[in-house]
Amino acid sequence: MRAELQPWTRVCLWLLPLVGYWLVLVYQLGAQWSAYEQYNYGWAVPFLAIYLFWQRWQTRPGVQPPSRPRLALAVVACAVLLILPTRFLHEANPIWRLTSLLWTLEIIGLTLALIYLVGGARWLRHFAFPVAFFAVAIPWPSGLENMLIQTLTRWNTSTTIEVLGLIGIPAVQHGNVIEISTGVVGIDEACSGIRSFQATLMLALFLGELYMLTVVRRVLCIGVGFALAFAFNVGRTGLLTWVAARDGVAAIDKWHDPAGVSILVGCFFGLWATGLWMRQRQTPPPGREATKAAAPDAKTPGVSATSSPSQLPMKLAVGLMCWLVLVEVGTEIWYRSHETDAGAAQAWTIRWPEEKPFFRRIELSDAVKKQIFFESGGQCAWLEPEGTYWQLLYFRWQPSRSLYARVRSHLNKTHRPEHCLSAGGMTLVADLGLGTYEVRGVNYSFLRYVFESNGRELRVFYGQYDDSAAPEFVTSYRENTARRIAAALAGSRNYGLRMLEIAVAGADDEVAAETALRAQLEKLIIFEDVKDGG
């Protein structure tokens, strides 16, 4: 005679496949939390969600049989089936916000459906917030995030200009750059306020649930958090600009990171105080005893004396675990079968033109190095006898061998001149599209731009090249759904990457600039099968 498992033992066994799904998701999103500074707070979200779930567990209502078990099972089936294409696409596009969102929603839906099957509608309502709270760690859609960054940056810069005027420091705004007597101070993404803006949203939601605030008070807590984030970021920008005006622009590096940490700490304590104040003002105060009284039939507070958790078939739990293993192993087999260690289609590197007049290496700031995270390369500038001024940037990333490295590699593809140079105060005059230039029988394709800065034209030639293709083909930036799907079908995830950007100022026109570029490429590019050097 086969021994029957106790109801709560079955529930614990059911947790094993569910925990497996969550761990895989956290591992994948964790690479983005580490790479995006504004999402570093994501590492705290799983632990905060577990704590909120545990807090709700102490006051759980009695179990009631699910009224629509077939609908819940359909949700489970849809969620796990959709994980397969989502996981497959995400492997080739590890920073695609859409797959991150869909994958998270699928796991949340799976979890809530299983909670409903175990404890019924009461449990679903009771545990919905702690489970859904994890969604706050999903990277926001790029369009929304970029709009907020640009908006917050403009507000931050213009408000800082007004504050500086009040304290007697003359300053002029040029886009996202503040010009003062000692130089210029750039308002980068970190200073825009988006990092503390998103972190305070997470904290406000957590504190609202922790103190069991009403819906209206939770919304007010979020509003207070946003106001604190903006005020602290204006203070940070004002402080850095004041330091630059007093001690020079170079002194900013000393204060930049401590000021950023101070913002988050200040927002946290400000929100904490707000949450405590709202809890005290809330009538009646939501204590645990009042919540436990919601289950009057329980011998143990919060647990029904007559109901036990619904017994789900263990075959379904085994099936969920097998499906998870199948998805992970199948995805890995697909991509590994398409990977190659053959190296680049054309091995090449850059020879630094140290013999050029006024040649100089340009040391990249620590912030840029941290952001780009290149393995070899650098930046330089020089003058030509006819008076043209040249800048060259060349970076090399070897094939990625870890998820974190792949995320960094994909992030590098988002650093484009039309974004980076525009943020630095330059004006994009024209996007001339793709141009191809032959170098000793090998074609190199570049995206071509014309920028203007202080009345001076700068022509920029920019290209990124995957190791899997000849430099005639600019790497896929995966800017749309079709390209991302094509990359997944091609098994593209681990290829090495090169970035080459050449800018020239002082050329008479586009024809003169392109003629000069061809001559420069002949001297700069080296074809040889050697390890790239800096």
Written description of the protein model:
- The chain has 534 residues and is an alpha+beta fold.
- It folds into 3 domains: 7-139 and 308-338, no CATH class; 142-266, no CATH class; 349-526, Protein Transport Mog1p, Chain A, CATH 3.40.1000.
- Helix content is 54%, strand content 15%.
- It has 16 helices and 12 strands.
- The strands form 3 sheets. It has a 7-stranded antiparallel sheet.
- A hairpin with a 2-residue loop joins strand 9 and strand 10 (456-466).
- Helix 2 (45-57) runs parallel beside helix 4 (97-132), helix 2 (45-57) packs parallel to helix 7 and helix 7 runs parallel beside helix 9 (252-281).
- The longest helix is centred in the first third of the chain and has 36 residues, at 97-132.
- It is flat, with a radius of gyration of 28 Å.
Write the layout of secondary structure elements.
Blueprint: H1 7-35, H2 45-57, H3 69-92, H4 97-132, H5 142-166, E1 172-174, E2 177-180, E3 183-186, H6 189-192, H7 194-210, H8 215-247, H9 252-281, H10 288-292, H11 314-338, E4 349-350, E5 360-361, H12 366-372, E6 376-383, E7 389-397, H13 403-412, H14 417-423, E8 427-439, E9 442-453, E10 456-466, H15 481-489, E11 497-505, H16 510-524, E12 525-526
Antiparallel strand pairs: 1-2, 2-3, 4-12, 5-6, 6-7, 7-11, 8-9, 9-10, 10-11
